[in-house]
Amino acid sequence: MQTPFNLGRYLALAMLALCTATAQAKNEPVAPAVKLANIRILATGGTIAGTGATSTTTVGYAAAKVGVDQLIEAVPVLKQVANITGEQLFQVASENMTDEYWLKLAKRVNTLLAQDDVDGIVITHGTDTLEETAYFLNLVVKSRKPVVLVGAMRPSTAMSADGPFNIYNGVVLAASPEAAGKGVLVCLNDQINAARDVTKASTATLDTFRAPELGLIGYMQNNKPHFYRLSARKHTVDAEFDISNLETLPKVDIVYGYANVTRAPVDALVAAGAKGLIHAGVGDGSLHNAVKPALIEARKQGVIVVRGSRTGNGIVARNGEANDDELDSVVSDTLNPQKARILLMLALIKTHQTSDIQRMFYTY
Ligand code: SIN
């Protein structure tokens, strides 16, 4: 049976063909025939929202100036890959990140991901503490839907600013069903990293986000993610931490190991009310003779001590360079000190038992 000629449908198809041809001619991604995912962009500041005096200013610019609407407008092709909505959650340079901002962000992410009309979230963030925010969310987000953090090393006003393409890749990744259930992801410079393992490894280069020994988990190429491996540690829906009723987090600080170090920082932080201390020791988490007595006293006062390593890579061996059973300390496993601090904060909302906290460090 012949279908009657439908002028409306004919015109719609002709328009679609024209748009597709135009997009192909411009080398832009072609809108897929499937329903677009609903992606919310949560903007928090950083260099990605920074402005400099000239197009060659890449140092000495002002971070956290451009609003979320402008960030979205700078990448018109986003409309073709997802239904985008934006929200300015806060506007800070990420060196000023606080527990309060983290709790606000995590609660908003959990609220949004519980909605049927949100399929994934992209968070624009300063790169300085991006790895910390990503790991915090990795432990407290209660959803398998994609959460992707993006940032930029060049301000939005720079020639070859990296922000727009990082936002584009972040949205493509968050809209991809393949990204679901993989934990919180970090996507810059065409690379996908797991929140637990990635770190900012260079002060200024575009390829600064690396997981030096454990490795990235995938690439963005040609408008899609390509995954090769996963972080083996538990995250998101499998993590045991609930921040939904919290207004503050336990105070946990970091002390650094180095030649000729004194016990003064440990004593000062304990006096200031630290509930936990990460010791970023030399090598395999070794403790200087001058600091060890201070840590023993801190533990006697109820402070939880985690032996980490300033090397940033490798396993800190339990009962290796110190007798953790005797000290009643915990080892950080492979977490760098700034991430060990986050896990200890979350652990302390649940327990003060060092055996349980050690289990958590081997789980997350
Ligand atoms: C920041 O972390 O907010 C400033 C640095 C950056 O985003 O690259």
Short description:
The chain has 364 residues and is of the alpha/beta class. It has eleven helices and 14 strands. The chain has two domains: 37-238, Rossmann fold; 252-363, Rossmann fold.
Task: List the keywords.
binds succinic acid, Rossmann fold, 4-stranded parallel β-sheet, alpha/beta, 8-stranded mixed β-sheet, 2 domains, 364 residues, 14 strands, disordered N terminus
Largest sheet, in brief, is: 8 strands, mixed
CATH fold field value of the largest domain:
Rossmann fold
The CATH C-level class name of the largest domain: Alpha Beta
Tally of separate helices: 11
Structure ligands: succinic acid
Query: Structural class, please?
Result: alpha/beta
Number of separate strands: 14
**Outline:** globular
Description:
The chain is α/β, with parallel strands linked by helices and 364 residues long. The chain has 2 domains: 202 residues, L-asparaginase, N-terminal domain (Rossmann fold, 3-Layer(aba) Sandwich); 112 residues, Rossmann fold. 30% of the residues lie in helices and 19% in strands. The protein is built from 11 helices and 14 strands. The chain has an 8-stranded mixed sheet, with helices on both faces. Strand 9 and strand 10 form a beta hairpin. Helix 5 runs parallel beside helix 10. The longest helix is centred in the first third of the chain and has 19 residues. The protein is globular. It starts with 6 loop residues before the first helix and ends with a helix. Bound molecules: succinic acid. The site of succinic acid has 12 residues, from loops. Succinic acid binds next to loops.
